[in-house]
Design goal:
The chain is elongated. The strands form 4 sheets. It has a 5-stranded antiparallel beta sheet with strand order 1-2-9-10-11, with helices on one face. It contains 9 helices and 11 strands. The chain is an alpha+beta fold. A hairpin with a 2-residue loop joins strand 4 and strand 5. It has a domain of 171 residues: Orthogonal Bundle (Ribonucleotide Reductase Protein R1, domain 1). Helix 3 packs across helix 4 and helix 7 packs antiparallel against helix 9. Helix content is 37%, strand content 16%. The structure holds calcium ion (2 copies). One calcium ion binds next to loops. One calcium ion (CA) binds next to loops.
Amino acid sequence: MTSQIRPRYPQRERGVILIMALLIVVLVTTVVVSVSWRFQLSMLRNENRWHGAQARAYMEGGEQLVRKILFEDRLETGEVDHLGEVWMQISGQPMQTDEGWVGGNIEDAHSRFNLNLLADKPLVPGQNNPNTNPNRNQDPWELLNDDQRRFVRLLQTIELESGPVQYQTAMEIVDAIRDWLDADDQVSGFGGAEADYYQDQEPPFPITNGPMTSVSELSLIKGMTPEIYKQLVPLVFALPEGEGMNINTLKPELLPMLNRKSQTLPLTPDEVKLLEEERAQATEGFKSAEEFFSGVNARTLLGDGTEVETGSLGVGSRYFIFAAETLTGEQVRRAKTLLFRGEINGINHVHVVRRTDANF
Ligand SMILES: [Ca+2]
Ligand SMILES: [Ca+2]
């Protein structure tokens, strides 16, 4: 007699057990994957945090070194700053580190146009201020000061898709900047704009009516387009009022704005070349702005007597931009520091004014 062995579980129950077993496998796998993913994420975060801290340490180290070099420079070479100095030579030379490299660029902030020089008020007490001249019958050009005229010329060097910025547009932008900086609500010239204009914008925003603290304010000003702004950003800076430009370090792109008082147009590329040649001959930098203006080419191009515009040009620098870069791990990190060098309570030193990873 044959006896049939009956299975322990009926067919249906076996199916359920199989599904449960599969579910357990799926569940365990999910838990394992999730734990492993969290572990990896946490590792990545820690690694990132560690590299971030390491990068910060390198960049702060670089900043300390730059402060020291700028301090020594003042002791050794005095008040004159030029592009042949040590701070300029070490610029852009990266150093090896255990995790990659660290380097950066040192730039003289006085090599750019200080936007706060466009204010109407006399910046130096006693300085002649053409803006307050009571004779309003004068040409708008004559009512501007040295720096405002320079900026009108500079704007005309900007090439847009439709051609260079026109004189009238440049004048209007300068009017609007004057209003942005002045404390009053009186609209300047033909292109000026005060609070009313900015309140009507979408979205509305308040006018500063005081010195700019960042170049980004320029992008908000009436008449400024993204195309013009983009080209101006590397050439301008917002330094405190009264901080002029250094003729020894002035960016070549700014040279065309130096012209005779009566000239509304920028210098031509050929004329700029003549100034560049004269500047290159002064290998130790000009010892004074007068020395620059008395050069043969400069005198021929820029005139003398009442025609020459000497305002806000000097040969020494107080503010520097250190743009640090470091490679740690797989990422290049960047940060910028604005440094001030000068006397505080009779003692010379270099200190950090601001740090940013965007534009100042
Ligand atoms: Ca105003
Ligand atoms: Ca005004």
